[in-house]
Amino acid sequence: MRYTFKLISAVLCALSLGVAHSQTALSKPAKVSQIPGAVSFHYDAQHDEVIPAGIQLKPSPAGAEGLFTGTLVVTLNITAVSHFHHGTSYHCSLTAIGGEIDATSGVVSGGIETASGVAKWNGTNTLSCTLTIPFEWTLIPDSTAIQGAILAFGVSAVSPEGGAVQRSTLQVAGIEPLPPSGTTSTFAFDATL
Predict the structure, then answer these.
(1) What is the gyration radius of the CA atoms in the chain, in angstroms?
(2) CB within 10 Å: which end of the chain, N or C, has fewer?
């Protein structure tokens, strides 16, 4: 009986040690390419908007230096696999959150930019939608932050009768690097409807 009690005690101690180790392993800092856990996105396809949540913009102090300018050019290549009504239009929306991004807390020194459009057939069985966002951000240096942009895009198939959304998709790209100030960043993503 005492031997069984000692064995059970040893097993419980080993399990406790394993749980403590796994909790420690889970609390490691996020990788550079990860999006902060508090950040989420919602695609309102009816209004062509990708809406972010969980982001906190850090206010720029008066007279702050660190102006960062550029242009984001995002091309969405859409493959229509589902069968849609003749005359269906394909809408696309983009939200870019960029600047100095603290991947742990979700605090951003920079800005949130949006664009939307309608895709055009590119001569094959795919469509293409290119969205351009010029920006100007005041960046406050932060040693715990990553300079880049989180790109979230939504694509929808909209019926010609009444404008009902037949199908939509939302995708989020990790923290994409930005080139030096004053230049253009070009990205391309694929989506299937």
Answers:
(1) 23
(2) N
Whether residue 108 is contained in a domain is answered as: yes
Q: Is the whole model's pTM more than 0.70, yes or no?
A: yes
Task: Give the structural domain span for 12.
Answer: 1-28
How many domains is the chain partitioned into structurally? 2
Longest dimension (CA), the chain: 80
**Is residue 145 included in any domain, yes or no?**
yes
List residues bridging with 90 in a β-sheet.
Answer: 157
Domain match, 88 and 182 both: yes
Alpha helices in 34-184 (DSSP H): none
**19 and 53 co-located in one domain:** no
Residue 63 domain flag: yes
Q: Per-residue b/e over 32-44, b at no fewer than 16 CB within 10 Å?
A: eeebbeebebebe
The answer to whether residues 3 and 84 belong to one domain is no
Look up residue 119 and give its amino acid: A
Q: Which three-class secondary structure state does DSSP give residue 101?
A: strand
Same domain for 83 and 9: no
pLDDT tens for each residue of the chain, 193 residues long: 444 444 334 433 333 434 333 333 332 233 345 566 678 899 999 999 999 998 888 887 776 666 899 999 999 999 988 888 889 999 999 999 999 998 778 889 999 999 999 999 887 778 999 999 999 998 887 888 888 999 999 999 999 988 899 999 999 998 898 888 999 999 999 999 9
